[in-house]
Amino acid sequence: MGEAFLTHPYVENAFRRVIKEYRPGKQYQVCLFLACSYGKPYSQSYLHYKIIEALRKLDRSYSDIHQVILTNLGIVPRELEEHYPFCCYDWNPAYENTEMKRRYLEVLAKRLRRYIETFQTSYNRCACYLRHNSESYGAVKRVEKELKVRIPNVALPPSRIPKAQIKDASLGIYTYEEDLALITPTNLKNLVKEVRKLLRC
Length: 201
Fold this sequence. Notes:
The protein is of the alpha/beta class. The chain has one domain: Uracil-DNA glycosylase-like (Rossmann fold, 3-Layer(aba) Sandwich). Helix content is 42%, strand content 13%. The chain contains seven helices and four strands. The protein has helices at 4-7, 9-21, 46-55, 98-119, 135-147, 163-169, 185-200; strands spanning 28-35, 65-71, 74-77, 123-129. Strand 1 (28-35), helix 3 (46-55) and strand 2 (65-71) form a beta-alpha-beta unit. The longest helix has 22 residues, at 98-119. The model has no long low-confidence stretch (mean pLDDT 91).
């Protein structure tokens, strides 16, 4: 946890390799930026399992969505989630302070801008599914302004989600995991609806 998890040489090298050596496998209709998760690989986490399950309701259109995870280690396309170091690190939000959040936003915005500049022609449009008060969404908004692009957030703000659903998402256990709001039925239904609209654009 800390600056080393943002700018360690292994981390910097992993992001450079994504930019220089990776290429999206096809022309995608939508690039969907997602939050990272405690569980690794991300797709096996409770959070991502529920998101993937919802997106699969789009049937054949599911393959037209490129899922890309925003993390403190960089920008991670779904198909690279099992690669080192993306599959084996832990960033505990409980230990974040104001300065660490500021640095995370700053570093993530820089990397996100680079990713979009490098791969923007591989996507017809971009969107994100992020908690509205997260540093990750703050980085997205910064990049929107810098690049003069639109990256709509298809997640609902917590104020529009019934508290009982958030409690159910946490399996009835008290937790500080704010991202659980993303896997409530109300938010997942909205995700599918909004992504379906983007696919039709």
